[in-house]
Q: What sequence folds into this?
């Protein structure tokens, strides 16, 4: 693109309306709103105590922009160990109240605190003693007064220049929902293993796969006892197709391993009659069954030290309980 020069004597053009200055102004408004929220979190603690005590699901509801935020909060809660779902308040008035059961809890979002469509859900929770947490910008308000715990957002100017479109307020609601979800995650002791159960697909699921999820065990294990002749060990090695054979010592511990490389290094006329201990490599690399599959791949690739290998024994203590091949990791999408 060729730059055009301004005519001589022309003044510098004023920033275009709706340009980068507008973008910065909007973000600054929302950052200020989040800072105000951070300084006013004391009212959140009673709500957390209520939500952690819910035995069933957390039902999140809201109308309009608050409803869109409520959907996201429900999704975040559900994916971080707190069973949750979104119920549309208008649909609730036409039968979806049946989705809210005894033992559930409700989070209702309404900045005004007076959203008419929430009336039936609020009444339902009061009638059946279902815990109700309100996230609102107004107190006193119908919603805040009815709730068991009301989280009142601090007053913050909307980023919309007319002060009409929900912008800063919905950003505060969204961030507060994330904070509540993570606080509940920590209170529940939610672990990476739990996360993997709820995220089996995609990159997250692959990153959190454990060795136990992909290893071969039982009859697939290529194992021989110490004292076995190499001729017999090679038969096991060939039949199991892992390119190696483990050697069991006293108490069933893994004493060593014989690989294709060991065969080449010890090639001699008497190789077939020698005992496996004379050929095996001692102290082979191993991995635990609860280790991440990514760690097993790193061990086999040599990224954690040593030359690359293609198979890795899985041990509990010193006893082999499985074996994992580099292709198992690659087929599972671990890389």
A:
């Amino acid at each position: 693109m060729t730059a055009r020069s301004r005519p001589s004597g022309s003044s510098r053009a004023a920033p275009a309306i709706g340009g980068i200055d507008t973008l910065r102004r909007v973000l600054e408004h929302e950052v200020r709103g989040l800072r105000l929220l951070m300084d006013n979190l004391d009212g959140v603690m009673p709500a957390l105590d209520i939500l952690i005590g819910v035995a069933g699901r957390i039902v999140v509801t809201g109308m309009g922009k608050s409803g869109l935020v409520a959907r996201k909060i429900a999704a975040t809660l559900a994916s971080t160990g707190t069973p949750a779902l979104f119920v549309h308040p208008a649909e609730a008035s036409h039968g979806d109240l049946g989705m809210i059961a005894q033992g559930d809890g409700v989070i209702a979002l309404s900045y005004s605190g007076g959203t008419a469509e929430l009336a039936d859900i609020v009444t339902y929770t009061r009638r059946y003693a279902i815990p109700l947490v309100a996230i609102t910008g107004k107190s006193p308000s119908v919603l805040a007064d009815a709730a068991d715990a009301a989280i009142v957002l601090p007053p913050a100017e909307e980023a919309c220049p007319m002060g009409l479109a929900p912008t800063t307020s919905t950003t505060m609601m969204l961030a507060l929902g994330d904070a509540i979800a993570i606080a509940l995650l920590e209170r529940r002791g939610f672990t990476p293993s739990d996360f993997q159960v709820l995220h089996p697909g995609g990159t997250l699921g692959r990153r959190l796969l454990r060795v136990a999820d992909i290893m071969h065990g039982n009859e697939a294990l290529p194992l021989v006892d110490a004292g076995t002749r190499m001729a017999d060990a090679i038969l096991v090695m060939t039949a199991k197709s892992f390119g190696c054979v483990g050697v069991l010592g006293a108490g069933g511990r893994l004493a060593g391993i014989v690989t294709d490389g060991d065969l080449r290094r010890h090639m001699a006329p008497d190789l077939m009659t020698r005992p496996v201990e004379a050929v095996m490599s001692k102290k082979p690399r191993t991995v635990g069954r609860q280790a991440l599959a990514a760690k097993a791949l790193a061990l086999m690739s040599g990224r954690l030290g040593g030359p690359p290998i293609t198979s890795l024994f899985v041990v509990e203590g010193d006893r082999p309980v499985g074996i994992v091949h580099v292709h198992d990791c690659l087929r599972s999408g671990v890389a």
In short: The domain at 211-331 is CATH 3.10.580.10 (CBS-domain). Residues 1-14 have pLDDT under 50 and may be disordered.
